[in-house]
Give the backbone structure.
Amino acid sequence: MFKNGAIMQLGQVVLDIDRQMETLNRDFGIGPFDVHLFDDRKVKDSMLRCKPSNHVYLCAAAWVGGAQFELMQPLEGKSIYDEHLADHRGEGLQHIKIYYDDVKREVAAYERKGYPVKQSGGIGDDLFYYLDTESKAHGVTIEIGNAGSVPPPDRVYPPGASSPEYVKRPLRDGDLMQIGHVVADLEDAMDVFYRDFGIGPFDVFTFTRERHINPMVRGKPGNHTFACACAWCGDVQYELMQPLTGRSVYNEFLEKHGEGLHHLKLYFKDVERAVGDYAAKGYGVIQSGGIGEDRYFYLDTEEKCAGLIIELGNNGDVGGSDYVYPAK
């Protein structure tokens, strides 16, 4: 199903899981979702910062192409989901999840690297461990798990739908193709993710005014520049962005939230047509541009999608990168 070290999941913390499922399914075709109520009857060995925990939360998971999108809504007790809502200043993307077949061995290896477990448990055959990575990994929580089987969901959304399944296939319209992360120091972020988590190597690009095709920010021509680094990790691309000059949505995010997960990107072959379709649904474009044959459009989704920014792109040829990290 997955290779060791592949990104298998992107997680978002929300306050109203039903409202978010409805929006994502209706407007973006994400779903169906398996919905679970996780409490001490379902979760084995629930731990929070090395102490037994009895927190209760809702979880909804949908496969979007080759990656899973997960929503978490805390209900009772204290958990890292409550911490995220407070520290992130509201709802938003919280974690990426990396697959390992021998997850307990990897937990020990990460602890030796200085990444202890801050929350963990087991559901059926599935084991999950959230590592304490935020301070070193530029605002991102990294979870590791074994993708084991879990009990049947309490319900499926929308009603009457079948449970979602992982399908390995080429990108199709609407598939999740990228996870975006805004950082203040691109070189340090690449070093941490490659050295400690095996994500990389990265193709690094600088979007200069000369290279950036038709940059727009909130309806006006953009004069911003930024650096980005991209690495494929399993079936999804991990992208790091560092704003350099001018104003962009990356600066806005850093000022509002600090470093952290910024967006998910959906693939569309005819991305301009998709932009028009989403405009008809009430989702305008807040930033756009291109490099080579690649075009990207960030939609104005934060308010309706519980703090989530959704980007659309055509996965076009960008040409050669400025350099590859690490150099070897």
User: Anything to note?
Assistant: The radius of gyration is 19 Å. The chain has two domains: 7-157, 176-325.
